[in-house]
Inverse folding.
């Protein structure tokens, strides 16, 4: 979403099983300058069962192959992520842990953050059905689906998908809420601030319309 470098460790929480958080993560990673280095993608068994495996052929991360690790539980997933963050041959690590397992506590997130800083490998932790327990992640997102855009050809058919991306904690910028949509032609997400009623005499005309910003 921004030109600034990615933080070493970010979290994306989502109560949905529709891949909205995954889409946000992939769009952010697509900004990275590093090319050619693979991305390590770690899933625990519950994440794979509830959200499905990533379709590697359908994911476009420019010149970055994806190495997938299927962990039996959250303990093994955390271990694989920590080991991956020590490997400078990787461009990033994506970890998926379902729910709020006891092992994913404040201390565990601190270990991940320290390894990410030490190895210089950014980490995205996707927490499906998580409630947002204590974490040291500098950026924390809540991503969920919204009703789709009306279909202009058939009112009974679904239109283009929409998501709400809420940055509820950040050490780099002010928190905020955006509505995301997928631009199929440009293969990117667009973010716009949701419409609100402003004070009288302000926000009239084109100046009051939120401008979409490309994500990725």
């Amino acid at each position: 979403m921004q030109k600034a470098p990615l933080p070493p460790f970010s979290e994306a929480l989502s109560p949905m099983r529709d891949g909205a958080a995954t889409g946000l993560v992939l769009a952010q990673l697509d900004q990275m300058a590093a090319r050619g280095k693979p991305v390590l993608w770690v899933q625990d068994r519950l994440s794979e069962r509830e959200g499905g495996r990533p379709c590697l052929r359908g994911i476009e991360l420019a010149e970055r192959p994806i190495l997938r690790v299927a962990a039996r539980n959250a303990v093994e997933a955390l271990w694989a992520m920590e080991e991956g963050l020590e490997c400078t041959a990787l461009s990033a690590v994506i970890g998926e842990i379902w729910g709020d397992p006891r092992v994913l506590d404040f201390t565990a997130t601190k270990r991940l953050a320290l390894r990410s800083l030490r190895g210089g490998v950014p980490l995205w932790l996707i927490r499906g059905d998580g409630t947002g327990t204590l974490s040291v992640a500098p950026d924390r997102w809540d991503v969920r689906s919204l009703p789709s855009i009306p279909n202009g050809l058939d009112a009974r058919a679904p239109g283009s998908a929409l998501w709400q991306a809420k940055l509820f904690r950040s050490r780099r910028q002010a928190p905020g809420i955006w509505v995301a949509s997928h631009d199929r032609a440009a293969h990117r997400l667009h973010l716009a601030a949701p419409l609100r009623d402003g004070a009288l005499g302000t926000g009239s005309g084109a100046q009051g319309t939120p401008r979409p910003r490309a994500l990725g």
Notes: The first helix runs from residue 20 to 29.
